[in-house]
Amino acid sequence: MATAMLLLSQHSLSLLHNTTTTSKSSFRPHIISCSSSKPSPASYRTSRRDLILLGLSSSLPIILPSPASHAEEEEVKMASVVDEINAYTYMYPLELPSQNFVFKWVESRKPERYSSAAPLSPDARLRIVSERIDIIDNLVISVAIGPPNFQIIKSKDKSSWTAKEIADSVLSDKSALRVTSSQRMAESSVLDVHCSEIDGEPYWYYEYLVRRSPTKTVQASNLYRHNVASTVERDGFLYTLNASTLSKEWDKMGPALEKTVASFRLLPSTDNYVPPYKDPWRFW
């Protein structure tokens, strides 16, 4: 047990360091090039025991302080998620202590393989493999997987991909409406894009607004969802964590959602990992 707690402590400190070094300013206009060499499949393998120890942190809240450059921002109490089926992890907010605010998350979609996941568009390219929502506070955190859209990304060389291309590729496959890719992209307004290399892999970050349907009390021009997302490629597919809230709630919720997106990482795969290309139309 002492060994498990030591490993857990080390993992928590690692995520704490990696997450808090990505401040709110990382979503301001800032584009850098990323290059990477694709690791061998063996480098993605690890033991189930390691991931079980890693997953223990999901039951132990972790306090993440705000970056020093944003001292006015408060600390956020967070917990971690580990999905062995799709081999990724991230942290999500539990509480804003200074505001005495507690998030009310419900796991609306438990982690599942790509083949059985819910499609985000009629062509079923992009699919939600896990999701948690806070209905009362209008918050959504989801992980989706789908192939790159090579009508938008012109090169097959991952090292040449830009964050704007990745954002357009993902957003083009995100609408549930039967519209063209360009029409789906028109529903969204990309505010910021940038790229960071982590563990030898490029992670593409982007912030965008999505216009929602108007209501009797809210005019169309004022109704948006504010989103932040992180995308990384593996096995020919894009893995994307997206976090969003209503625009009017962004000042309060945005910093915590940015920490969630900054914490998103691919994990070494275990025997439970199911690549997206495996039996893509198997629904059981």
UniProtKB/TrEMBL annotation:
Organism for this UniProt entry: Pelargonium fulgidum
Domain named PsbP C-terminal: residues: 141-265
InterPro entries in UniProt: Mog1/PsbP_a/b/a-sand, PsbP_C
UniProt GO cellular component terms: extrinsic component of membrane; photosystem II oxygen evolving complex
Taxonomy, superkingdom: Eukaryota
GO MF term set: calcium ion binding
Pfam families per the UniProt record, alphabetical: PsbP
Any one Gene Ontology BP term: photosynthesis
Protein name in UniProt: Photosystem II reaction center PsbP family protein
Signal peptide: none
